[in-house]
Amino acid sequence: MSRQTFVSNTFFVNASEETTRFILLSLPKKTNEISFVSENNKLNVTRFNHQAPNQDNYQVDVSLLPMNNEYTQVNIHVGYIDGHSFTNNNTIKQVLVQFEYSIQAALRGDAAFFQPPVLEERNSLSVLPFFAMIANFVTNIFMWKKV
């Protein structure tokens, strides 16, 4: 797998840019995991920090592109604050999905933000039955030849 420094996602919302920006800037008031860092008007990017319990600190950049008066394109980039790269990280993908769902839930007016299901880490013990089956198969072949 190739190394990368961020993950990103683009989606559209059924709201104007002003409404989406207002909702975006109100997210830190509604959850303790998100804190506002800065807003760059030239690049049209708003930067947040995301700190979930028992997780690393992530940097979230959100840019808004108005399509017309009814739709806005939202681009989200999530990476580590220090900028180090990674190959595969389910936690950073979960932060990306959670941030997207938080924006969409806030635009719908949901009081409680939708929390996506926690991505489960692959358990290496799940391959043990497969290797046991292979070992049993090889043992049965040798036993068959002896008979």
Explain how this protein is built:
The chain has 147 residues and is of the alpha+beta class. Helices cover 35% and strands 28% of the residues. It has helices at 17-30, 90-108, 128-146; strands spanning 6-13, 34-40, 45-51, 57-66, 72-80. α1 packs across α2. The mean pLDDT is 81.
Note the topology.
Layout: E1 6-13, H1 17-30, E2 34-40, E3 45-51, E4 57-66, E5 72-80, H2 90-108, H3 128-146
Antiparallel strand pairs: 1-5, 2-3, 3-4, 4-5
Helix pairs in contact: 1-2
What radius of gyration results from the CA coordinates?
22 Å
Strand order of the largest sheet: 1-5-4-3-2
Low-confidence stretches: none
How many separate helices? 3
| Number of DSSP E strands | 5
Biggest sheet features: 5 strands, antiparallel
How much helix is in the residues? 25-40%
Basic shape? elongated
Mean pLDDT: 81
Approximately what portion of the residues adopt beta-strand conformation?
25-35%
- Derived from helix and strand composition plus strand pairing, the structural class reads alpha+beta
Oligomer: single chain
Distance between the amino and carboxyl termini: 48 Å
